[in-house]
Each structure stands twice: as structure tokens, then as C-alpha cells.
């Protein structure tokens, strides 16, 4: 019988103790595992020590899966699972499998009929969306934009058009040392009334989450986010509002398909 692939979230920064952001069940399961698939061994060992893993670090097996791993080598990482051992998959920060090389291993596990169990922990994307005040019922994560300035501007305009047409919040991330370039590109390409959230160091002591219109951001000081993990979110004015339909936007809170305030109704 195959083992289970446990998806183990990791704190979003070293200043965040594992016990403060990981559910007790996540920590308990992590401490029972002896084999992990990780991006980098050094940071993985640091996290396991901070999480209070009871096994000496030199006795824990760490298998590398990162941007340098060849696709044909990913399948070999399933062998411990096929041998019946439970394995933990960890990202460098946050939830594995989301904007993360570990997604390839999860896909193969499903193909081989191996059980996959996600554990509870922090996601900078979801936390930023929660705190943004933007539309949390319709949203899309586009990851990294093109580095080329012209291609990046075209992509931003496409996403803004999609956002306005569907009332859909757009989520983006960037390599921390390029945060300022992405913010400048968003302020250049987006319409003045588009709402933009800059969420930096989410869940960490220096956390900053601010939502303003693009017009307001253009007259504000540049945030202190150099080399700090940041999520960018924006929501364009809907096509109906932008066209001045009946002179007013329909700003009423609408129930979702579950009914009520967004919580699924319990069955009687």
C-alpha cells in the first residue's frame, strides 16, 4: 500500500515561529515524518529544527525538488511513497504546490493513485486577498509577469480589461528585489480608478497591507518594500460602472451561489 503525500506549509518568513502560524495537526503530522521533498536542504533543516522535529536532523531524509530538477527526475521522488512511506512536501515559504515546483510531484502522485493530503498553514495569496477589500468571490492568480517592460505593460492591460469585464480581482507576485519596478508598471498601465493593494510581509512583524486607487498611489510615497515578499492585487472598475450605467454603480453586497453572506447552508 502506498504512503500519503502530506503538503506541509511553511511560515512566510523566519520571523514567524512555526507554532504561531501552523495548526497543531500540521505540526504533529510533520513531526511524525522522516522523509521530505524540499526546495533547498539548508532552509528545510532550519524550519524542521524550529518546528521541533524530534528526530536528529542528520537522520531525516531530504530529497531536492526545485527549479533545477529535470522533469524526468521528478518520478524518482515518488519511490518512498510507492514503498509505503509517508512523505512531506515543503515549499520555501507558504503552501507547497502553489507557484511552487512541488506541483509537478503532486500531479504525478495523483496519476499513480497516491493519496495527497494538504495541511493547514499560511498562504500569502489568500491572506492578502482577505485583507484587501477587493472581490473575494471572483479572483485569479497570474503569478509572475514578463520581465520585458513592453510585454509586461501589455499583460497588465489585458488583466485589467479582464478584471473590469468580470469584476475579477487579479493577484500577482514578483521577485522581491523587483517590487518597485512592478509597482511602477502597474501605476503606469492601469486606469486611475482601478483599486490596487500592496501586501508586504504578510503575517510577519513588519506586515503592511494597503489598498488605494491607482490615482491615490501615484501621489503617495513608494512603499518600503525593497527585498520584502509582496503580493499585488488589483480590481478594475466594472464595465457597467465605467460606462456610467444609470449614473451609479451597483454597490450592494450580493449573496454568492451558496446564499446569504457566503457561508454554505447546512443541510437539514
Furnish the topology, listing elements before pairings:
Layout: E1 4-8, H1 18-21, H2 24-30, E2 35-38, H3 41-50, E3 61-64, H4 71-74, H5 79-82, E4 87-90, H6 103-111, E5 115-118, H7 124-132, E6 139-141, H8 149-166, E7 169-173, H9 179-189, E8 195-200, E9 208-213, H10 214-218, E10 230-235, H11 239-242
Parallel strand pairs: 1-4, 1-5, 2-3, 2-4, 6-7
Antiparallel strand pairs: 7-10, 8-9, 8-10
Distinctive features:
268 residues, alpha/beta, Cobalt-precorrin-4 Transmethylase, domain 1, 2 domains, 32% helix
Structure explained in plain terms:
- With about 270 residues, this protein is of the alpha/beta class.
- It has two domains: about 5-120, 3-Layer(aba) Sandwich (Cobalt-precorrin-4 Transmethylase, domain 1), CATH 3.40.1010.10; about 125-245, Tetrapyrrole methylase, C-terminal domain (Methyltransferase, Cobalt-precorrin-4 Transmethylase, Domain 2).
- Helix content is about 30%, strand content about 20%.
- It has eleven helices and ten strands.
- The protein has helices at about 20, 25-30, 40-50, 70-75, 80, 105-110, 125-130, 150-165, 180-190, 215-220, 240, and strands spanning about 5-10, 35-40, 60-65, 85-90, 115-120, 140, 170-175, 195-200, 210-215, 230-235.
- Strands 3-2-4-1-5 form a five-stranded parallel sheet, sandwiched between helices.
- The chain is elongated and about 55 Å long.
- Residues about 245-268 have low confidence and may be disordered.
Amino acid at each position: 500500500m502506498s504512503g500519503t503525500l502530506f503538503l506541509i506549509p511553511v511560515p512566510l518568513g523566519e520571523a514567524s515561529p512555526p507554532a504561531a502560524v501552523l495548526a497543531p495537526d500540521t505540526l504533529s503530522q510533520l513531526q511524525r515524518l522522516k522523509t521530505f521533498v524540499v526546495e533547498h536542504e539548508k532552509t528545510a533543516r532550519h524550519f524542521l529544527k524550529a518546528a521541533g522535529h524530534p528526530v536528529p536532523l542528520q537522520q531525516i531524509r531530504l530529497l531536492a525538488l526545485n527549479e533545477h530538477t529535470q522533469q524526468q527526475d521528478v518520478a524518482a521522488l515518488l519511490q518512498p511513497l510507492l514503498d509505503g512511506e509517508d512523505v512531506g512536501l515543503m515549499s520555501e515559504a507558504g503552501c507547497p504546490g502553489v507557484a511552487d515546483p512541488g506541483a509537478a510531484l503532486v500531479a504525478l502522485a495523483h496519476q499513480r493513485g497516491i493519496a495527497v493530503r494538504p495541511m493547514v498553514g499560511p498562504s500569502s495569496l489568500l491572506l492578502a486577498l482577505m485583507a484587501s477589500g477587493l472581490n473575494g468571490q471572483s479572483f485569479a492568480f497570474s503569478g509572475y509577469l514578463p520581465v520585458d517592460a513592453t510585454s509586461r505593460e501589455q499583460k497588465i492591460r489585458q488583466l485589467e480589461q479582464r478584471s473590469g469585464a468580470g469584476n475579477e480581482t487579479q493577484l500577482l507576485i514578483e521577485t522581491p528585489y523587483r517590487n518597485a519596478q512592478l509597482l511602477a508598471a502597474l501605476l503606469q498601465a492601469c486606469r486611475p480608478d482601478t483599486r490596487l493593494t500592496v501586501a508586504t510581509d504578510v503575517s510577519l512583524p513588519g506586515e503592511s497591507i494597503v489598498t488605494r486607487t491607482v490615482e491615490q498611489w501615484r501621489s503617495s510615497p513608494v512603499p518600503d518594500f525593497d527585498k520584502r515578499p509582496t503580493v499585488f492585487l488589483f480590481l478594475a472598475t466594472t464595465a457597467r460602472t465605467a460606462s456610467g450605467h444609470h449614473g451609479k454603480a451597483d454597490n450592494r453586497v450580493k449573496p454568492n451561489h451558496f446564499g446569504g453572506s457566503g457561508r454554505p447552508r447546512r443541510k437539514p
